[in-house]
């Protein structure tokens, strides 16, 4: 799964994949780390037994510190476009992954680290976590999707404040504005994410993937077209063995055994 990777590792625990970026000292994202992220998600797409993915960071003080600042010194408008698209492509691959992706954040999520969280479906953070896009301090913008995803996920005025100032948003504030799903004590974020992942994985995997697809595609559609998408997708479920198993388990008062 992560053979040959130096900075991004993947461990599969039953039907949950834990993807960890570990590039000391601050888990900065260089081209190799981005390539390894993409490779892992390409490989996970070919692993039907994986029902939920968790992304976390190695170390305690920093989740992911975004771009490697040293490497930005040599950028030109031409090479900068290539760099921006590399970041966007990586995070879009995470966002479009057909299974739910949970982000488990401990410590600082800076720039690209914040944008990784934006690309995930659910964010669990501990009390040490904070989120920021400080690119404006370098006279840059959050170009890994930050200016597009954040205003779609929290109130636009709050997103503008954070992106205009580059200030940190602590975990409690992030939960208050709806960006973080749950805040937990330090040391508990990964276990909490795994517990939620197990709960999701116990549900019908076809239906969960379908639900994610309907939500993500529907957000870009007029309501009428989104409702049509939902109706068509849902109708296809009635022909699946998992639907029959779910109904049988319901009436038998037992846990369903979905096959996916």
UniProtKB/TrEMBL annotation:
GO terms of molecular function = 3-hydroxyacyl-CoA dehydratase activity
Give me the reactions it catalyses.
a short-chain (3S)-3-hydroxyacyl-CoA = a short-chain (2E)-enoyl-CoA + H2O
The EC designation for this entry is 4.2.1.150
Q: Keywords assigned by UniProt?
A: Lyase
One biological-process term from Gene Ontology? Answer: fatty acid beta-oxidation
Coiled-coil annotation reads none
Annotated pathway, please? Lipid metabolism; butanoate metabolism
**Is Lyase set as a keyword in this record?**
yes
In the UniProt record, does the keyword NAD occur?
no
InterPro entries on file: ClpP/crotonase-like_dom_sf, Enoyl-CoA_hydra/iso, Enoyl-CoA_hydra_C
What Pfam families does its record include? Answer: ECH_1
Where on the tree of life does the source sit, at the highest rank? Answer: Bacteria
Q: How does it assemble?
A: Homotetramer.
Family that this chain belongs to: Belongs to the enoyl-CoA hydratase/isomerase family.
Q: What is this protein called?
A: short-chain-enoyl-CoA hydratase
Q: Which organism is it from?
A: Desulfosporosinus lacus DSM 15449
């Amino acid at each position: 799964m992560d053979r040959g990777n130096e900075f991004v590792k993947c461990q599969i625990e039953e039907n949950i994949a834990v993807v960890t970026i570990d590039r000391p000292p601050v888990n900065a994202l260089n081209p190799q780390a981005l390539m390894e992220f993409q490779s892992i998600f390409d490989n996970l797409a070919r692993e039907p037994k994986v029902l939920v993915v968790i992304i976390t960071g190695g170390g305690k003080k920093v989740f992911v510190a975004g771009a490697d600042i040293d490497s930005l010194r040599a950028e030109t408008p031409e090479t900068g476009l290539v760099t921006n698209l590399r970041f966007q492509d990586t995070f879009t691959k995470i966002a479009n992954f057909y299974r739910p992706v949970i982000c488990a954040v401990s410590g600082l999520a800076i720039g690209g680290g914040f944008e990784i969280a934006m690309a995930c479906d659910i964010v669990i953070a501990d009390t040490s976590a904070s989120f920021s896009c400080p690119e404006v301090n370098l006279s840059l913008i959050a170009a890994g999707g930050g200016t597009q995803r954040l205003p779609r996920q929290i109130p636009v005025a709050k997103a503008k404040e954070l992106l205009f100032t580059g200030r940190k948003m602590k975990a409690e504030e992030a939960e208050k504005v709806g960006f973080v799903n749950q805040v937990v004590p330090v040391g508990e974020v990964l276990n909490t994410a795994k517990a939620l992942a197990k709960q999701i994985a116990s549900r019908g995997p076809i239906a969960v993937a379908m639900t994610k697809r309907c939500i993500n595609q529907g957000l870009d559609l007029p309501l009428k077209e989104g409702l049509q998408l939902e109706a068509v997708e849902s109708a296809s479920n009635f022909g699946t063995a998992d639907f029959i198993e779910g109904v049988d388990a319901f009436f038998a008062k037992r846990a369903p055994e979905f096959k996916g």
